[in-house]
Design a protein that fits this description.
CATH architecture of the largest domain: 3-Layer(aba) Sandwich
Radius of gyration: 21 Å
Strand content: 5-15%
Largest sheet: 8 strands, mixed
Structural class: alpha/beta
Shape: elongated
Distance between the termini: 39 Å
CATH class of the largest domain: Alpha Beta
Number of domains: 2
CATH superfamily of the largest domain: P-loop containing nucleotide triphosphate hydrolases
Number of strands: 8
Order of helices and strands: HHHHHHEHEHEHEHEHEHEEH
Strand order of the largest sheet: 3-2-4-1-5-6-7-8
CATH topology of the largest domain: Rossmann fold
Number of helices: 13
Helix content: 40-55%
Length: 320
């Protein structure tokens, strides 16, 4: 058992503070643009259009930006308004856009092991997300197995092994170059035999426009169904916030090809484009389970629509 290893890496910094710091680039870009526009004149049509354009440039998406503009137009048109008041409107509308998708990843204890297939393109943070999720599940008292399905990269196998040791999770791997579907099959069989609660399967970074690579991922899905026809019970797509608009196409292709059931967005601390999560929510209504804002083991947390909305608008946490 290695439970204390993950615990020791926890920071004492509250999650809200880490989220606010992590979204600093996004909130600063948005807040600066709003302050610049508002300083010039009262809230007339030209000002509202400028604000709407800035929201679109911040990757919030045309739909959400339009709703915010409408709220400003009909709520406070031709009046003076402060940047803080606009931020409150932004936060309220962003929260509305995200409220329906902020859903926890529910682990059904009746399905043992509960199989989570983790997908995403190269560099999205898949393996690190698996490690952080394993740490969270272990702290909840669950037994976990990590399966190194990214067999094309020896470094990915080693990285996952480090996370398994760090979190006290069981580990299944084969030599680099082994068949990923065969590894997934063996891992699920072993997890069932050991009565493991959750099996997390890493996969090779798939370019969503490479049909042969997506086909290999589909094969992994087919193979695990030979043991448990209800598996995988969740397909978690890990998205890198720094890619901005490209994340929209990733969701679309992975959803169609491998039946993605939920999202985790990483690297929100490395971009001013954190608003892309709002655009994704508006377009796909796909459950968002987790967001990540750093490299520490506790920098992945369940997604909260209200916390995210207020952090991206550079507002303090709501008291309600």
């Amino acid at each position: 058992m290695n439970d204390n290893t993950a615990e020791a890496t926890e920071t004492a910094t509250p999650w809200w503070q880490r989220l606010t710091v992590g979204l600093k680039r996004s909130s600063s870009a948005l807040g600066g643009a709003i302050a610049h526009v508002v300083a010039k004149r009262q809230l007339d049509e030209a000002t509202i259009e400028e604000i709407e354009n800035e929201l679109i440039r911040a990757d919030l998406g045309a739909e959400t930006a339009g709703r915010i503009a409408t709220e400003l137009r009909y709520g406070r048109f031709n009046t003076s308004i402060t940047a803080e008041e606009i931020k409150e409107v932004v936060a309220a509308e962003v929260e509305k856009a995200l409220a329906g998708v902020a859903q926890p990843l529910a682990i059904d204890p009746a399905k043992r092991p509960f199989v989570i297939l983790v997908a995403g393109v190269n560099g999205s943070g898949k393996t690190t997300t698996i490690g952080k999720l394993a740490a969270r599940l272990r702290r909840e008292g669950r037994t976990v197995m990590l399966a190194a399905g990214d067999t094309f990269r020896a470094a990915a196998i080693e990285q996952l092994k480090i996370w398994a040791d760090r979190t006290g999770a069981a580990f299944m791997a084969r030599t680099a170059g082994a068949d990923p579907a065969g590894l997934a099959f063996d891992a699920l069989a072993a997890a069932r035999e050991r009565n493991v609660d959750v099996l997390l399967i890493d996969t090779a970074g798939r370019l969503q426009n490479r049909s042969e690579l997506m086909g290999e991922l589909q094969k992994v899905v087919r193979v695990v169904k030979k043991i448990d026809d209800s598996a995988p019970h969740a397909v978690l797509l890990v998205l890198d916030a720094t890619v901005g608009q490209n994340a929209l196409s990733q969701v679309e292709i992975f959803k169609k090809d491998v039946g993605v059931t939920g999202l985790a967005m990483t690297k929100l601390d490395g971009t001013a484009r954190g608003g892309i999560l709002v655009a994704i929510a508006a377009k796909f209504q796909m459950p968002v389970h987790y967001v990540g804002v750093g490299e520490a083991v506790d920098d992945l947390a369940p997604f909260s629509a209200r916390e995210f909305a207020r952090a991206i608008a550079a507002l303090p946490p709501s008291s309600s």
